[in-house]
Amino acid sequence: MVGMLAKSKAGHDKDNIYVIFQEDDAYVYLVDGKSRTTDKPKKKNKRHIQIIKNFRAESGEMQLDDLSIKRTIKEYCKSIEKCQGN
Fold this sequence. Notes:
Helices cover 17% and strands 34% of the residues. It contains one helix and five strands; from the N terminus they run βββββα. It has a five-stranded antiparallel β-sheet. Strand 2 and strand 3 form a beta hairpin. The longest helix has 15 residues, at 66-80. The protein is globular, with a radius of gyration of 11 Å. The two termini are 21 Å apart.
């Protein structure tokens, strides 16, 4: 799932779009390139996100950086013509 876009389903960040930066058994670590950078990802329960299957961040060798993450989220928001929180 690393590199895929995800939408928050619960919490104060509900409906925000993130890129999955890391994952473990129960949690994923989300970044958006602005407030949640690769240095400080948001830890979120896997049950509280919805994977956006038709969109994946271009990651090369999984070296995701803040600029490419912001660009990917912005591109996705333009494709659906609405995004909350981003």
